[in-house]
Amino acid sequence: MEQNILWKTSRSSAILLMTLTMVSNCSLLPSRTLEVSAKPIERTIVQPIMPREIDLREVRWLTITPENYEEQFKIIEEQEGELVFLAMTIPDYETMAYNMQELKRYITELKDVVVYYREVTTADLTNGDTNN
């Protein structure tokens, strides 16, 4: 019976100690002030160097017809030394012209994107310098 009383007393003491700890919620320790600040991080945006302009060379096109083929053959053999033909039909030439226009459009749109981002990032850098 004495063990039972001792057990109840220690149990009551443990419950009382846990209750006090939970209620006090570490309020016995001194509190510290925590200062939070947000500052923008300065980033260095590297601007890529634009590629050099395209250096295209002139291609000489000859139109050879049944009426002028002998004259054109002589001119080609005199200038080049040998005669080689590369032929293209009119629909294939139109396809090649379409493909060249598509390449031109694509390159122009890519250049516009690069110029846009260059302007946006340099504008951010100049605005950031004036605000400080």
Features:
132 residues; mainly alpha; 0% strand
SSE layout and pairing:
Elements lengths: L1 H23 L44 H12 L9 H42 L1
Number of strands: 0
Structural class: mainly alpha
How far apart the termini lie comes to 80 Å
Order of helical and strand elements: HHH
Please give the radius of gyration in angstroms.
43 Å
Number of helices: 3
The residue ranges in which pLDDT falls below 50 over 5 or more consecutive positions are none
Structure description:
There is one protein chain. With 132 residues, the protein is an all-alpha fold. It is 58% helix and 0% strand. It has helices at 2-24, 69-80, 90-131.
What's a concise summary of this model?
The chain has 132 residues and is an all-alpha fold.
